[in-house]
Write a structure and sequence with these properties.
- The structure holds two protein chains of two kinds.
- Chain A is an alpha/beta fold.
- In chain A, 32% of the residues lie in helices and 27% in strands.
- The longest helix of chain A has 17 residues.
- By secondary structure, chain B is mainly alpha-helical.
- Chain B has one domain.
- Helices cover 72% and strands 1% of the residues of chain B.
- In chain B, helix 3 packs parallel to helix 5, helix 4 runs antiparallel to helix 9 and helix 5 packs antiparallel against helix 8.
- Chain B is globular.
- Chain B starts with a strand and ends in a 5-residue tail after the last helix.
- The chains are: A alpha/beta, B mainly alpha.
- The interface between A and B is medium-sized, with 35 and 30 residues.
Chain lengths: 318, 260
């Protein structure tokens, strides 16, 4: 068992997810279980995801993120229990419901011979409106004449994201939406997501991501490990509870790191891995860390405000 | 915002265009639909041409070949240019994203089926017109007669595409689709009097072959080509084939999934 993931979250067992007062449940999971082979099963006794909230699903490889998404989308069938859409989202996968839905999935595409402009023409013919600004933001005009199969993986991803968000849906589901994007488009996508949330208070998003910038935008974080929900709570609460507000990094030989760790006050938590010592604490931490840094020979030292990247760094399965 | 008026026919028409270009962009598809039957015609007609049609009806061997190869092409297009392509697109998850766009599956399948029907209609028209105009020893047929022949073939093509669509609802792997297409295609093209005379087979086998749907179909086509039957005679069969094709396409279109 990886202690880095176990220790912080055991404290969160009693943490109640923070829900907006008005948000209805849009995804309700009850007694869900799904087994894939001898080594993996996903078991979620109870989980409510609220509408009007951006929820990031995070977890290490094989933690069950994609399996959960596939169960939601009907690509897999649960062995027991249910995962259901509710409220305004009840008919989200029906033809009319899809007017309010945007989806981007990994390892999916289109007929490679289709031209990008034709895909958007089909999309436009099926929807009452499409915002050209979204298409511009994803750089679609410059690749419009090209065949889908001739695009790079990042360009394909931009096509899928523009198709998913061009109509400004109320509900959006993404599987690693920024995994192939270059930094410019990654930022554009994060801005787009935040913009949609500002424009429409009911905007609801569910996304799997390993990208800190994107996870940082979520209202709630759902952490999966080994097919189980480790945490489902507001991102800020998870950070405050398990990491504090400030962090510092020391990079040095292991003997030096051991000496620094021994000198840390008890109120400070730390994690050591391969020549790196990460330290978490409250507002006093930078001052303490700086003093220790001045007393030791280090390869690298830095401090920062705790953020989603700290959670993501700890997400590994055995 | 780009405001748009939703037009129900726009989506099938878009897919008709996209799938037609998609088909014509695939060298293998173009070869099997357009090049192969023409090449086969020249090879067989060079070797065996000049005599009478093995099926009689007052046709020449060239007439026999043209009609037989036309049937062969609609079969191979339905199997390799339709069923195998569709299964492969599903297996590659190339249809998955369409499932999240707000239109019915039938709108996609209407465009997909229509694209293959259009390609076959163009092929048959060009194929017949070219050989009637250019090849010697071809029975003179009127434009109206040729139109009936092509309409009859298209009715058959609709059934075959319906059967192919139905098959795709049971197949999830590309290799399986290719194997099944070959298992169907090879015996049919060699044992249905398409270009290899069925009368050459031993009597017990011939009696089986002569009751097969492709044998009966190609000989109906030859009867229309020879002028032994006309539109009125062909209408019931054409109506039946179109009805069966429509039922198969609608049923299979509803049953079909977007992904494997």
């Amino acid at each position: 068992m990886n202690t880095a993931i176990t220790d912080p979250y055991k404290d969160l067992a009693g943490l109640e997810p923070v829900m907006p007062a008005t948000g209805q449940t849009w995804i309700k999971v009850e007694d869900l279980s799904y087994r894939a082979g001898a080594d993996f099963d996903l078991v979620i006794p109870k989980l409510d995801l609220r509408a009007g909230v951006k929820t990031a699903i995070v977890g290490g490889n094989g933690s069950g993120k994609t399996t959960l998404l596939k169960l939601l989308l009907g690509d897999l069938t649960a062995d027991a229990g249910s995962i259901a859409l509710q409220g305004d989202a009840a008919d989200l996968f029906g033809v009319q419901g899809r007017q309010n839905l945007g989806v981007q999935l990994q390892e999916t595409g289109f007929n490679p011979v289709y031209r990008v402009r034709d895909l958007f023409a089909v999309n436009a013919a099926a929807r009452p409106f499409v915002d050209p600004a979204v298409l511009e933001l994803m750089g679609i005009p410059e690749i419009a004449k090209r065949r889908f199969g001739d695009l790079s993986s990042g360009q394909k991803q931009r096509v899928q994201l523009a198709l998913a968000l061009g109509h400004k849906p109320q509900f959006a589901i993404f599987d690693e939406p920024t995994s192939n994007l270059d930094p410019v488009y990654e930022e554009a996508f994060v801005d787009l997501l935040n913009g949609l949330a500002r424009e429409n208070p009911d905007f609801t998003a569910l996304y799997i991501s390993h990208t800190a910038n994107l996870v940082e935008t979520c209202d709630q974080i759902l952490i999966l490990a080994h097919g189980r929900v480790e945490t489902h709570a507001a991102l800020d609460d998870v950070l405050a509870r398990s990491y504090g507000t400030k962090a510092a990094l020391f990079e040095a030989p292991s003997e030096t790191l051991a000496a620094i760790a021994a000198a840390l006050p008890k109120s400070v938590t730390h994690k050591t891995s391969k020549g790196r010592l990460r330290v978490f604490g409250d507002a006093n931490l930078p001052k303490i860390a700086l003093t220790l840094a001045q007393d030791h020979t280090l390869n690298r030292f830095s401090t920062w405000n705790t953020c989603a990247a700290d959670i993501l760094e700890d997400l590994k399965n055995d | 915002m780009t405001e748009a008026t939703l037009r129900p026919g726009a989506i099938p028409l878009r897919f008709l265009k996209m799938e037609t270009f998609s088909y014509l962009s695939a060298p293998a598809a173009v070869f099997w639909t357009f090049v192969y039957p023409i090449a086969l015609f020249f090879i067989l007609n060079t070797i065996f041409g000049g005599g009478e049609s093995p099926s009689g009806m007052g046709l020449s061997y060239t007439d026999y070949l043209i009609t037989g190869l036309a049937v062969m092409t609609i079969l191979s297009t339905a199997l390799f240019g339709f069923a195998a392509v569709l299964v492969d697109m599903r297996a590659q998850q190339n249809l998955r994203n369409l499932a999240f766009m707000p239109f019915e599956k039938r709108q996609f399948y209407t465009g997909f089926v229509a694209s293959r029907m259009l390609i076959l209609a163009v092929f048959l028209t060009v194929f017949f017109a070219a050989f009637i105009l250019l090849a010697s020893d071809v029975t003179a047929v009127s434009t109206g007669q040729l139109a009936v022949v092509i309409a009859y073939l298209m009715s058959g093509a609709f059934v075959l595409i319906g059967v192919s669509l139905m098959l795709t609802t049971f197949i999830s792997k590309s290799a399986t689709a290719q194997a099944i297409a070959n298992i169907i295609n090879i015996p049919v093209i060699f044992m249905s009097d398409l270009f290899l005379p069925a009368a050459l087979f031993p009597e017990p086998l011939f009696s089986i072959i002569s009751h097969g749907p492709f044998y009966l179909f190609v000989n109906e086509v030859r009867g229309l080509f020879a002028g032994q039957a006309g539109l009125i005679d062909a209408l019931p069969a054409m109506g039946g084939m179109i009805a069966v094709g429509a039922v198969l396409v609608i049923w299979a279109g509803r049953r079909a999934k977007w992904s494997a």
